[in-house]
Amino acid sequence: MRTKLMQAWLLLLYGYQSFVRSQTYNQETILSRLEKSGIIPTVLSEDFFPTTNLLVDYTDISVVLGTELDPAKNQTSKLPSFNYATKPRGYYTLALLKVSQNSTLNHKLYYLNVNIPNLYINLGNDTGIPYNPPEYPVACSPETYVFVLAAQSYMTPSIATPGSRDNFNIQKFASDCNMNIIGANYFVLKPKNTDRCQNTQRYSTTIINLASESGCDSRISMLSSFSIKSFVFAITELFLLALLI
C-alpha cells in the first residue's frame, strides 16, 4: 500500500514539475536559439511568437533547444513525451521535421499528430504520418530536427493528410487548417563516423589551399624558387668536379 502511495505521489510531483516548466519560459531565449539554429526563418516565420514551452522528454534525456542526441543509444527510437501549456477543451497539433538549410520548403516530416485534446497525445490523430525515428546523418554535416506545436481553433475532423513526408511546409499547413504555431523545440544529430568526416574535411581543406595557390604570382614564385635551387645545385656540382680534377 505504501509503495503504491509513494508511486502515486512521485507521479503527481513529476506532473507538477512538468506543468511548472511548461508555464515558465523565456521568449527571448527561445527566439534567440531558433534564429541561431536557422529554424527561423527556414521553418518558422520571423514573426513567430512562442506562448509556451514545448517540453520534449525522451526516455533518458530531455530536449532543450539544441540538445545533441545519439541514435546509437536508442535515444530517438520511441516517441517522446510532451508537456506544454493548454487551455480548457483545447486541441493541438504536433509535428517533427528535419530542417533543410537550403530551402524553406524542403523539410522532411517525421511525425504529425492533429486534434490532440490538451495533453492526451494518444487521443490525437497521426494522419497517416506516425513517428519515424530520426537516424544518423548520411552526410558529414549535423542535422537539426524541430518539434513544432500549434494550437487549433477547433477540433477538425477533416484535415487533409499530407501525401508525402517530403517537402512539408508547416507554416502553410497551419495556415490552411486555421492553426496558430505557439511553441517549438529542437535537437541535433551529429554524424556517426566523426573521424571519417574530419579526415574528409582535412582533405577538402588541403585541396582548397592548393587550388588557391594556383594563381600566376604563385606559379612565378614556385618557378623562381625552383630555378634558384637548380642553379645552386649546378654550381655545387661544378665546384666538386674542379676539386677532383
UniProtKB/TrEMBL annotation:
The record's section on PANTHER family has: PHOSPHATIDYLETHANOLAMINE-BINDING PROTEIN (PTHR11362), PHOSPHATIDYLETHANOLAMINE-BINDING PROTEIN 4 (PTHR11362:SF82)
Q: Which organism is it from?
A: Zancudomyces culisetae
The protein's name in its UniProt record: OV-16 antigen
**Lineage in the entry?**
Eukaryota, Fungi, Fungi incertae sedis, Zoopagomycota, Kickxellomycotina
Signal sequence annotation: 1-22
For this UniProt record, give its keywords in alphabetical order, as a comma-separated list.
Signal
Q: Which InterPro entries match?
A: PEBP-like_sf, PEBP_euk
